[in-house]
């Protein structure tokens, strides 16, 4: 099981995949009438959507981080933390320059 492993690469992969799955779920639930390309365009140009999706992404990363901290898997939660910071800065830059 992935909770027993402790390596940086696992943390990086988990946190890259989680928000993408969340983005797909939000697309399917909230914007079923748009094509995925239209949704991505809307996502990139509407600050309100960026905030909502970004918050959900960072929340999922925080849950993963807390889980791996609890199980004392330091290498994995380092990877989770690195990518979470990257997501946070990226969302901030999208909001500022849109």
Notes on the protein architecture:
With 98 residues, the protein is an all-alpha fold. It has helices at 8-30, 36-45, 47-70, 74-96. α1 (8-30) packs antiparallel against α3, α2 packs across α3 and α3 runs antiparallel to α4. The longest helix is centred in the middle third of the chain and has 24 residues, at 47-70. It is elongated. The N and C termini lie far apart (41 Å).
Sum this structure up briefly:
With 98 residues, this protein is an all-alpha fold.
Helix % is over 70%
Estimated share of beta-strand residues: under 5%
**Measured distance between first and last alpha carbons:** 41 Å
Let me know the average pLDDT: 82
User: What is the 3D shape?
Assistant: elongated
Number of DSSP-assigned strands:
0
Low-confidence stretches: none
Structural class assignment:
mainly alpha
* Gyration radius, in Å: 15 Å
What order do the SSEs take from the amino end to the carboxyl end, as H and E?
A: HHHH
Q: How would a textbook summarize the main sheet?
A: none
